[in-house]
Amino acid sequence: MEILENLLKELNFHELHDHELSFFVGSGISVNSGMPLVSELINTILKTVMDSKKHVDKISNQKIPFEVFMNIFGEYSKELLDIYSGGIPNTNHKLIAKLAREGHVCSIYTTNFDELIELALNNEGLSENIDYKVYRTEKEIENSFKDSELLKIYKIHGCISKINSLRHTIRNVAFRENILIREKILKKMLNETSKLIIMGYSFSDFYDINPIFEQNQNIKKEIIVVNHDLRNDVKIDKSVTKPMLNNNCWDITINTDDFVKVLWKIHLKDKYILDNINHDWKNNIKNWFEKIHFGYKEYISTILFIQQGQIELGNYYCNKGMSKADSEFLKLELYLLKLLIIRSLKKIEKSDRYIKKAKKCIELLNNQDIAAYGSVNIAEFYLLVENYPKFEEEYHNLNVIMDSITNNIIISKYHRLGIQYCIIKGQYAEVLTLCDRLLDFQLKNGLIIDIPVTMHLKFKAYLELNDIVGAQNSLFELKNIPGLTNLTYQPFIELSEIEYMVKCKKINISEINHEIEKIWFKNENFQNNFVFDVFDKHADYLLKKYNKD
User: Fold this and answer.
1) pLDDT-based confidence at residue 528 (cuts at 50, 70, 90)
2) CB atoms within 10 A of CB 464
3) According to the 3-state scheme, what is the secondary structure of 407-474?
4) What integer pLDDT is reported at residue 288 of this predicted model?
């Protein structure tokens, strides 16, 4: 390990002064405590819900971000997340806690849900709110800048001890919402202190953390990224594969246990002991799935395959789930998914059967929120397949019940349907007014994910009114939505730009198809994200509209 010791000395990690070191850690540091790696947990769940390894591989190869995956489970995610509620700190947590006890650590940033770092600090005689402060929720993180200079622990994706807030944060990460909070705190991490160690982290948070690193390159601080490798040799390189390229960032490929041992030997007098604790979390997952509703495994598999654009496999699991489901609400969910599949497979003639089944479930459930949820989705289906008489009928039915609905997501969808209703009627001035009201509602309620579609409807209304200046301004707003990773929506934004260029006669109508194909191939991974349907719909609209003209 002499080569590693020499590098630490060269990078000034051999001597540590007070509060000059920060840690950014991921799930890898908790493996020796019996906690799963993210990829391992996802794979175990997939094996539990799917029929074959071939099907499991089709999803696991897509590398779905953990929060996107867990968000599918909704209210049931608590039972799965419970595996993070126990455990004993291992050598990695102890190293961080002991360095904190010595006064070297300024802040600890972690994507982990467990509380093993906090427990390790307590075992070193440090007390929460006296020696250190933990920020477990988005609101607490947002208010953290006002606090005194205690050792700070930032639970960037939430904490198991605040399960409702954790599930809310998971949803926000999955839908690219409230990114500004994480951007602010990670900028702080990259600029505070002079030394940062990143350990046990896979750089797989493509929706919120990676884009922030990419936007904050050329950081002057010294950064060490520990890449775990079970082999005994050590490989040291300038960072060329991570999103935060800078001259002072070093990748160290090494068994993490060996890295921790060297750091421990240099800075601590305590005896080094390697901990390795077993925890049968896989069995917990299997037992939970055995207790859940029949058809739920198939429901999860259906969503996963639809999200990845593998419609035939989605259809297979949806049919299987519908034949097994023992809950009226689960049946409703599966019937609504079946409508998405029918539309994708262009078998619209089969839709009446499943709409009737969905409405029967709504009637049996006798709940206004569920009625609104089902009707909004059915109305949206009619809109997407351009069955405007049925869409208008369903929309008017919604008007009767919406006054009593408090779910902001349903309210947002309902108002967007109202805007579409005005577009069908050619009432574009009214569209602008309704878009502004809806944008205000979405911003106030943190529904960032809904904003691009509303903004595009506003942009389209300006074009229909031949207001080029208004269209240009709304296109600028679309590119600069606060709290949104525009990287995700880049193809959607580029599509709007094509429409603008056609309207301004900057490109010929004959070039539209070619320009759309260029966007598609430039964003080759785009087909696998949830904006696909919106992009596809507007691409079709563009081609039909201008080819007709």
Assistant:
1) very low
2) 15
3) CHHHHHHHHHHHHHHHHHCCCHHHHHHHHHHHHHHHHHCCCHHHHHHHHHHHHHHHHHCCCHHHHHHH
4) 86
* SS3 category, 46: helix
2-267 belongs to CATH 2.40.30.10 = no
Domain locations in the chain as residue ranges: 2-267
Beta strand ranges found along 73-231 (DSSP E): 105-110, 132-135, 151-155, 195-199, 222-228
Question: Quick check: 41 and 90 in contact, CB under 8 A?
Answer: no
Catalogue the long-range contacts made by 248-252 (C-beta closer than 8 Å, 24 or more residues apart).
248/11, 248/219, 248/220, 248/221, 248/222, 248/223, 249/219, 249/223, 249/224, 249/225, 250/7, 250/11, 250/223, 250/224, 250/225, 251/225, 251/227, 252/4, 252/7, 252/224, 252/225, 252/226, 252/227
**Residue 396 confidence (pLDDT):** 93
Give residue 216's pLDDT band: very low, low, confident or very high (50, 70, 90). Answer: low
| Strands (E) located in 6-129 | 21-25, 105-110
Q: In what order do the strands lie in the sheet with 21-25?
A: 132-135, 151-155, 105-110, 21-25, 195-199, 222-228, 249-254, 235-238
**399-450 per-position pLDDT tens digit:** 999 999 999 989 999 999 999 999 999 999 999 999 999 999 988 887 877 8
